[in-house]
Amino acid sequence: MLTDVTVTRYITPLREGGSLPGLVEADDLGTYVMKFTGAGQGRKTLVAEVVCGELARRLGLRVPGLVTLGLDPVLGLGEPDQEVQELLKSSGGPNLGMDFLPGAIGFDSLAFEVSPEEAGRIVWFDALVNNVDRSWRNPNLLMWHGDLWLIDHGATMIWHHHWPGAATSAAKAYDASDHALAPFGPDIASAAAELAPLVTEDLLAEVTAQIPDAWLADEPGFDSPDALRRAYAQPLLARAGVIEGRIKGFEGDK
């Protein structure tokens, strides 16, 4: 499981995203971007963040560290913003925390260069998890200390919103025409050769084990959190070996 820490202070809302994440301090003295179970997008967004963030890290991509943030709803009582107060009061228990990267700036394809090799690894990974939210309009990439960091994976693995159709959904191609890194000539073939063999059943079991049980409980059609963990792993395992040939939309596609 992810490391558990407890929120000690709510600092400020971050209004760039639709789910209204917040900046918080925790009892480990860390500062985190907090995503709430009580947000409109629900706990599946947090599950996607964990699966994709932990998988990306194990594949050698840069992702801020993740923790579970225990929240006492009483913290919401002193919050003057009514929307934030309601969010805090409805999100008691474990929430998701992402390491805050102080001084990081948003990625701009006109201001930064990315090698075809790095672009290829990121595009291949996004195709694997079907990330529809890494476009030039909203890259969800940060530059920090000269390196490219991946953030915000809540809009991935859309098949987990309808498990009966998961296999069919996961078999679809990935359209990279609007991908933020498409202009950099992503080397998809090299990325696939490097990364696909790493996506094994054991690796995915390790990744899905990081999801808190509370975010997997009471899912229709599954009798236990572990059964749902296996369901998360199966489409990713199936896609890893074939997704290279299903990436469409830029000059490097097949």
Automatic annotation (TrEMBL):
List residues of the HipA-like kinase domain.
Answer: 11-239
Listed InterPro entries: HipA_2 (IPR046748)
Q: Which Pfam families match?
A: HipA_2
Q: Which domain of life is it from?
A: Bacteria
Task: Kindly provide the name given to this protein in its UniProt entry.
Answer: HipA-like kinase domain-containing protein
Q: Which lineage?
A: Bacteria, Bacillati, Actinomycetota, Actinomycetes, Kitasatosporales
